[in-house]
Amino acid sequence: MLRRLSHKTAAILAAVAGLTVALAATVRAADDATGNPMQAQIDHGKSTYASKCSHCHGPNLMNSGTITPDLRAFPDDKTRFVTTVKNGKNNRMPPWGDILNDEEIGSLWAFISSRRKP
C-alpha cells in the first residue's frame, strides 16, 4: 500500500531535490561548455597568463630578443614551475608568491602544460 507523505516529509524531500539541482548547476558552471573541468582550469590560466605574465614572456609563451625562456619548452616539472613562480629566478624574474595564490599558479601550470612543444 502507498502511504501519504506528511507535509513535513514532503517539504524536506523538496528541499533536498532543490539543493541537488543547485549543486549540479554549480558544478556545470565551473566546467567549460564541453563539460571539461580541466579546460576550465586551462582557460583560467590563460587569462592569468595574459594579465600577469605575457608582458615579459610574450603573448604566445615566448618573447624573442629577451632573456625570458620559451615557456613552450619548459620541462614537465610542476614542482620546478611552482617554485620558480613563487620565488622568482636569478634576480631576473620577480617572485609572484605574494601576488598569485596556489590556485592561480596551478591554472598557469595547466595552461602552459597544454601548450608544451612535443
Automatic annotation (TrEMBL):
UniProt protein name: Cytochrome c
Transmembrane feature ranges: none
Domain Cytochrome c: 40-116
Stretch forming the signal peptide: 1-24
PROSITE patterns listed in its UniProt record: CYTC
Pfam family, one: Cytochrome_CBB3
Keywords: Heme, Iron, Metal-binding, Signal
